[in-house]
Amino acid sequence: MTPSTQVRIGKESRQENRIVPGARRWNLRKMFSCKFSRSTATAVLVCVLSLQSSGIAGDWDYMDDRSTPQKLLQSYYYAISNRLYVQAYSYFSKEFAPKDFEQWAKGYSDTKTVTVRFGPTEPNPGAGQIYWALPVAVSAEQVDGTSKVFVGCYQIHMTNIGMQTAPPYQPMGINSATLKETKEPFDKAAPGKCASD
Q1: pLDDT at 138 over 60
Q2: Separation CA 154–CA 56 (nearest Å)
Q3: CB under 8 Å to 27, separation ≥6 — which residues?
Q4: What is the mean pLDDT of residues 68-84?
Q5: What DSSP string describes 56-106?
Q6: Span 81-107, average pLDDT
Q7: 176 three-class SS
Q8: Checking CA distances to 38, which of 6, 26, 89, 170 falls within 20 to 30 Å?
Q9: If pLDDT is split at 50, 70 and 90, which confidence band does 10 have?
Q10: How far is it, in rounded angstroms, from Cα 147 to Cα 114?
């Protein structure tokens, strides 16, 4: 059993995470350079992508990690905190994603920053599948400055990677979430119970 861990996801100001459209165009011009090279037989367009450009390095901020159930949910809430709803939606297992993407995304429109605390979990393997029941406590800071606290459980699934022999690869994903709002302050709210507890 691992101890409870807590992670704050997102920055104080969402503007710090955003790339200003004008700056993005400038960055792309700076990091991408093309020129013609003539040989005896043909002219070739050679393009070079410079990853050492100071433009993108300072502006780009990204998180996408499915290596553990905890990292998966950190990435999920990172995307929510930064209004990257398509990225967040991608963390659901294919068969378990909410049917109406627009309605689901609208449910997070007032969420500014998320802090999540995890309870202990262990993999539950069976017939080529691996499941985790991950207890969580979640604090969702709203755009109006108020916060809501939820406790509950995420059900995480992954097909055993050794059993995946044909594309497309199926990564770890969220099968379901059972969250309930609580009046307890976040620092006192324990991660919720999972059905198997």
Answers
A1: yes
A2: 34
A3: 19, 53, 55, 56, 59
A4: 95
A5: HHHH-------SSHHHHHHHHHHHHHTT-HHHHHTTB-GGGS-S-HHHHHH
A6: 95
A7: strand
A8: 26
A9: low
A10: 9
How far, in whole angstroms, is CA 89 from its chain's centroid? Answer: 9
Q: Is 25 helix (H, G, I), strand (E, B) or coil?
A: helix
Q: What is the distance between the alpha carbons of residues 182 and 172, in angstroms, rounded to a whole number?
A: 28
pLDDT digits (tens, 9 = 90+) for 43-64: 554 444 444 433 444 555 789 9
For residue 18, what are its two tokens? Answer: 């955003």
For residue 40, name the pLDDT band (cuts at 50, 70, 90): low
Closest-CA residue to 178 (of 193, 162, 166, 167): 193
Place of tokens 């967040």: 88
> How many C-beta atoms surround the C-beta of residue 61 within 10 A?
13
Q: What angle do CA 113, 196, 111 make, to 5 degrees?
A: 10
Interval 87-103 mean pLDDT: 95
Distance of CA 43 to the CA centre of its chain: 44
Q: Long-range contacts: 23-32, Cβ < 8 Å, 24+?
A: 23/55, 23/59, 24/59, 26/55, 27/53, 27/55, 27/56, 27/59, 30/54, 30/55, 31/55, 31/56
> What is the number of alpha carbons within 13 Å of residue 55 lying toward its C-beta?
18
